[in-house]
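hey so i finally got around to running the thing on that chain from the lab meeting. sorry it took forever, my laptop kept dying and i had to restart like 3 times. anyway pasting the input first so we r on the same page abt which one it is
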Amino acid sequence: MPEYEGTIIRPPSEAESLILQYTIGCSHNECIFCPAYKQKLFRIRSIEEMEKDILDCAPAFNDTRRVFLADGDALSAPQQDILTLFALLRRYFSRLRRIGMYANTRSILDKSVDELSRLREQGLGILYLGVESGDDTLLAWMQKGVTAEETMEASRRVKKAGIKLSVTVLLGIGGSTGSIQHARATGKLLTEIEPDYVGALTTMVVRGTPLYLLQESGNFTMPDSFAILNELAEMIEHTEMRGLFFANHASNYMPLQVRMPLQREETITMIREFVRKGDPSFLKPERLRRL
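ok and heres what got predicted. didnt touch it at all, straight out
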């Protein structure tokens, strides 16, 4: 079986994929809200290590159609190494149809459209990108390390290369005072990006993160559950795109799947009616919310 180091995180849509750990940790790893890779030092595994993993699991997974390359930023590996790895995957998994991986804005910008197109030709079908917010002030505060404009350019490259783009945004990360500004700026950025998929997660303040210390010191206050829903409605209202907008992560108070733009207006109306009624029985209990 493949070798894994530490906790492995994958997108929900990769639940049936074979997961191989190509990078350890995250190449950025400074976001104040994220606990995922704090215990790992970032490194890229060698092709030799990867081939051993592939050989070990190929007999049991010879009918694999999808492979997901963990950890946080597999796209940061050198272009030729990724192409070599893709060739190995195609050799040992003859039915392989799609390779997916996490990326960040920097690793995308380090590659040209031609390089991304080459990866798509060799099997890269989807990239998962953490956008979090479209508000530059908020992005700097959360130590994201990029601007909204840079994320916009990176997303354009992915789309131009013909690779599907799935992005995540964070509800509540603007705190109780910046909620609406965050929602509107993020909706505007999503409109410019027009990803294939959006996943809206609700911020979970995790002990041990800088965000937790800010909350403990009174310098950050999460919006309450109905303010989060109001933020979601505001974000959807300011998002014009064709694709799927999900808010069905385990962290969210109300599971939603919105086909944009067809279901946009009815979804906004429904959310605001829930907020107006203020009935907590419709919401997921706090004890059931998860990262």
